[in-house]
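worker-03 picked up job from queue 'complexes'. Input manifest follows; two sequence lines, order preserved.
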Amino acid sequence: MILEGQKSTLVRRFGFDDGLVNRVLGAAATRKMDDADFYAEYVEAETYSLEDSVLKTATRHCSQGAGIRAIVGDRFGYAHSNDLDASTLLSAAKTAGAISDQSGTLAVPALAAGKARDLYPLERSPLDGDVSSRVAMLDNIDRRARAADPRVKEVFANLTLEDKEVVVARLDGCLVTDRRPLCRLDVRVVVEDNARRESGRAGGGGRFSFDNFMVSYVGEENRWQYFVDEAVRKAIVALDARPAPAGVFPVVLGPGNPGILLHEAIGHGLEGDFNKKGTSAFSGRIGSQVASPECTVVDDGTLPGRRGSLNVDDEGTPTNCNVLIEDGILRGYLHDRMSARMMGVEPTGNGRRQSYAHSPMPRMTNTFMLAGSRDPEEIVQSVDYGIYAASFGGGQVEITSGKFVFSANEAYLIENGKITAPVRGATLIGNGPDVLTKVHMVGNDLEQDHGSGTCGKGSTTGSQLVPVGIGLPTICVEEMTVGGTAT
Amino acid sequence: MVENPEAAARISEELLDSVLSMGATQADVIIRVSDRLAVSVRKGEHELVDKARSSGLGLRVIVDGHQASASTSDLDAGRLKTFGRRILDMAQAAAPDGDVGLPAAEEYDDDAESVELYDASLENLETQDLVELASTAEQAAFDEDARIQNSEGAKSELLRGFSVYACSRGVTRVRRGSRLGLSCEVLAQSPGSDALERDQWWAARRSMKDFPGAESIGKKAAVRAVSRLNSILPATGRYPVVLSPEAAGQLLRSLSEAINGYSVLRKATFLGDARGTQIMSSAMQLVDNPLIDNAPSSRTFDGEGLHTRPVVLVRDGVLENFILDSYVARRLGLDTNRQAVRGLGSPPRAGASNLHLGKGTATPRELVNTLQRGVYVSSFMGFGVNLVTGDFSKGARGFLIEGGDLGAPIHEFTVAGNLREMLLGIQGVGNDLDPYRGVSSPTLMLGEMAVAGGGTSA
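worker-03 finished. Artifact:
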């Protein structure tokens, strides 16, 4: 049965009458196939940018569209449109269904929906509230940053509020709707001292409404204040930074955002599509040792309110906490329905897509390492000379060779067991299958990042961006290549 | 759905009239419509077909210096009116800025240059033709070398569409565009080894007559993947560095961001005070040319509807121009270089079209031959550029240069320096400029840079 709430989404949001979704799936399935799905989405978003102490840019975006996919083995046909009238959808379904060259028709069962859990309950739309409330917060950000230090010369803040509603229906009768808020605030400051200029940035958010930027956060009165103070602190630290050394050193990664190591070095290589094709550095290695016994890594899409969380993935599968590596042993991959079927396992709730214009593929949600037993201070004390990386900008990986790289935007030298001078330009490079085998200490201080991650992955329907989360306790990697300029 | 440019122009003009009657002092509208057909082939099997028609509309309104922008995929006339009303409300909240606004009326007076952007013969291509292209490329990769054992597939894509710009200066501009792309990505494996390497090659052209053979794309992907096998780690040290056109193009992207007027305005670039000064070695020319027939980023009008023209950014190594649209030009006290680019729902921003670094006379091999010892970078990885300071540190892969020749392939190393010194230190320029890339550089030979890797010195 279709629950009342879902029925109202179908009708209110998309104007789909009773039975239209069934008819569209039926139009795709006029030949034999393994699976077919229908996905429709409606997005409203607003952005507000502060610059020169005033609201400089206000933008608003609305988009809607639907995609129909028909799957035969590991081949699929996909057709999408931002026109949602019945004739366009039915014709798109026929186009997608033409991928199958096997005759025979599949019956579409009555669509039935269960009650989904709610990881991001909303009392009202994330876009509710007047523009003046946004402007007031941005003004406060500007004032707080400039008051924090006279060396602050420029303040930029960017606020994005998004409300997305999706419908997923499948040939097996599954029907789900999900309403997904996503808000994010970024603060960047430029500081100047004796003609030296540096910048610092901080930000984050999650699946919640605008009001959440006003609630207390990490010891600060509210979330936006934390981001302002962090951006200013990082910029001031950078003013004193010296060139990073070049060479191979022990590297201590601080808690939270340095979890990008897991995302780049491990996570992408465990996505089921690459492993189905045997093109990942981790292909065929389930059950083997890929990390030191200290390491347990999970991908968990069920954390309430987190940026990478989802009630259901974009194929209607409920998300899970999936164990990827347990005590150093590779336990599983991340799957969408197609890679799971091809590899003979259950879908893991990781089938994600950027929008209706893209077909789903296996993607991460929130990826992190579980806490170990070490005191973080003890970990730093164990290093004679090395790098302490507190925060990273972006990273990248080559899936097949496993080579990854990421750039620190806050890092320090470790000398004789103590964190000393800040360094700039520290880029770390390594090899995914190796790096976790070199993690010999794991701290007891697991932190999730602040919710600013966006992951890009190439696909046959174009490169796709999805919001993700990362997390890490303090860890020590025995040796990594550090790409500074001081030789 | 909007069927043709005439219908799109009509919708744009009606929306302009509507927001002007509701109190906007200026406004502009963009409509983009595209048809896409893509297929992929993997291991000879036709794996995917993806077909779509999409359209979108962008609106910017200005009310006495208050500006807001918006986009929508819903082009229903009645709902567009409501949409316009909301954007006007948002504009009221933005701070007034006397420099915001359309270019001056007389800027719109000149005629357009004629540029080829659309090939009607591509309209005849069907799914089966695209499958043929992709299959041919992938098969050529497998045939090229027995070490090509696996594939991520080959993909071909056909895009056709049109774009309409209309603004309250009474100007309506229309252009059509087409693009046929083919890419191939394969994996190489040495006999008796677990190590896999992957690489790809691609081409995209606006016109069928310029399209290279599908075989050549597959072959090149195979050669690139195989050349990575048995990579070693270089030893940490300082080396002269030669950049492939691909790696040099990545450097050029950083430079274009550093000389973007908006970076200058925000004091976010180390080149903010550099206009009129030497920023590259004196043999270097850098031009943004939007008027090259069938080049990927050619455009007859910019994101503010102004007819475009080539802009010399760097002449004989001296920075002559920043990349400018009308807003940032006003803020900096300069004239617009007609380089506005536009996301559908965003205000204009400055951006280059075909950004080409002038080629030299030496072949890439001749450049490598001049070095006894060095590092050839095939491609960079990751971020690692700080435009405020010019600090540069990226992951890389490539080849050792030994005794004037390319030697062993190398990987898992970083290359670091400062953009200011890297640009001034360019010592050689290749003759291998690819005109079919939007941002394109020939092979470049730089001075010494810091290389970090886990290898031991020979």
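worker-03 released lock.
The longest helix of chain B spans residues 127-144.
Chain B touches chain A through 81 residues (CB under 8 Å).
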